[in-house]
Each structure stands twice: as structure tokens, then as C-alpha cells.
Specification:
Elements lengths: L3 E9 L2 H6 L3 H11 L5 E10 L8 H13 L2 E4 L9 H9 L4 E3 L5 H33 L11 H36 L5 H10 L12 H12 L1
Parallel strand pairs: 1-2, 1-3, 3-4
Helix pairs in contact: 7-8
């Protein structure tokens, strides 16, 4: 039974199919059947007319942006509507968007398991080569042993990496959010309080999942103008 927020993505390969609705209705019906029952909300439906062989699909990028904004899951009718290569699915997962294919709900888990298995195999191969190299060096009389005196340096590097990750996520969030704020401004709402209320009305949560306040809008706008 479906739970949570969803963004639906449907795609057809030709302009003729897009105009006629051929193929779209079947995908839309499959999504509705999958979401039938449960505590769920279909926030938006994005339709794209594009070849599945291309990876630069603007409407799919829009759907992923909406998923990040609304903390929603991407739902598609058929796995081949999303992509035909593992690299693209991997990029989708790295974008911070979870997805489910109605015709193969386990596909996201399966993909992750396959990639994890490959990564594990590569890591083991690297470990085996490292051990072999260390054994050979030891046999030649090379003194082995790590430097235990650089823990503060390692800790500082860890903190810097964590900060960079948070900053990257914040930058992505800003890119996703600003078009929505500009659309609200274009409708005539320009005050921080008004924009906060409009974001709440549209169901867009803050980065922490809460409701918008004027001060948070002001911070976003200040960072955008910096």
C-alpha cells in the first residue's frame, strides 16, 4: 500500500504519441492503480515526449527537482520509461531521489544491490592487491607501519568533507527552490510573509521538512543575492 508523497513521470517516444495520448493513458492508469489506497498524495505529474536513448531529458530533470523540493518519491509506470542503462539509474540515485517502477517495484533495491556487489568486488580486489604489495615490501626489508600522529589532521579532513557535502546539498536545494519563489513573485506576492505562505500552500517543505516562516525566506533570498 502506497504511503507518502509522489511525483509521477510518464514518457512517450514520439510527438505523435504525445499529441494523441497513445501510451500516456495506460501509464497514468498504471500509476493510479499502484497508488490506490493508503495515505498518499500525488503532488504533480510530469509528461515528457522524448526518446529513451537520450539522457538529457528536461522533464525528467524537472520531476527530480520537484521530488527534492517536496521530499517525494518518483513513480513511473514502466522501468523502461525511466532509462535503459544502469549508469543513468545510478546518477538518479546520486541525485538524492528515490523512485519506484510500478511494473517492477523491487527494481530500485535490485539496482542498488547490483551496484553494491560490484563495488564490493572492486574493493576486495584493491585490498588483495594492497596486501600483496605490502607482503612483497616486507619481504624486501621495508619497515611498515602507519603514522599514528596525524589523527587531528584526519579529523579536520573529515569535518571539511562533511561541510562540503552539506554545502553541496544546500546549493542544490537553492537551485531547486528559486524558480518556485520567482513564480510566486511573478504572481504579485513579494513579501517574505506572503512567499512563506505561498510555499506552504504549495506543499513545499523547508530543508528540515517543516513549514516556512518569513525569516527562512529572507535567508534564502539573501543567499541567492550573495
Amino acid at each position: 500500500m502506497a504511503e507518502g508523497r509522489f511525483i509521477s513521470y510518464v514518457r512517450v517516444s514520439t510527438a505523435r504519441q504525445g499529441r494523441s495520448g497513445l501510451g500516456l493513458e495506460a501509464q497514468q492508469e498504471a500509476v493510479r492503480a499502484y497508488l490506490n489506497g493508503g495515505n498518499w498524495q500525488l503532488v504533480a505529474e510530469v509528461v515528457e515526449v522524448e526518446s529513451g536513448k537520450r539522457n538529457d531529458r528536461p522533464k525528467l530533470a524537472e520531476a527530480m527537482r520537484l521530488c527534492r523540493l517536496h521530499k517525494a518519491m518518483l513513480v513511473i509506470a514502466k522501468l523502461d520509461r525511466l532509462a535503459r542503462n544502469v549508469a543513468f539509474v545510478s546518477a538518479l540515485m546520486e541525485a538524492g531521489v528515490d523512485f519506484v517502477a510500478v511494473d517492477f517495484p523491487q527494481a530500485n533495491r535490485l539496482t542498488i544491490h547490483i551496484l553494491a556487489a560490484v563495488a564490493e568486488h572492486e574493493a576486495k580486489a584493491i585490498s588483495d592487491r594492497t596486501k600483496a604489495a605490502l607482503s612483497a615490501a616486507k619481504a624486501r626489508g621495508v619497515k611498515l607501519g602507519g603514522d599514528r600522529g596525524n589523527l587531528p589532521e584526519f579529523a579536520a579532513k573529515g569535518r571539511a568533507a562533511s561541510l562540503a557535502k552539506r554545502q553541496g546539498e544546500a546549493a542544490t536545494r537553492k537551485v531547486d527552490l528559486l524558480p518556485v519563489i520567482e513564480d510566486i513573485r511573478a504572481s504579485g506576492i513579494t513579501t517574505a510573509n506572503g512567499i512563506a505562505a505561498a510555499l506552504n500552500d504549495r506543499g513545499v517543505p523547508t530543508a528540515r521538512g517543516g513549514a516556512w516562516q518569513a525569516v527562512q525566506v529572507q535567508r534564502v533570498l539573501a543567499r541567492a543575492e550573495a
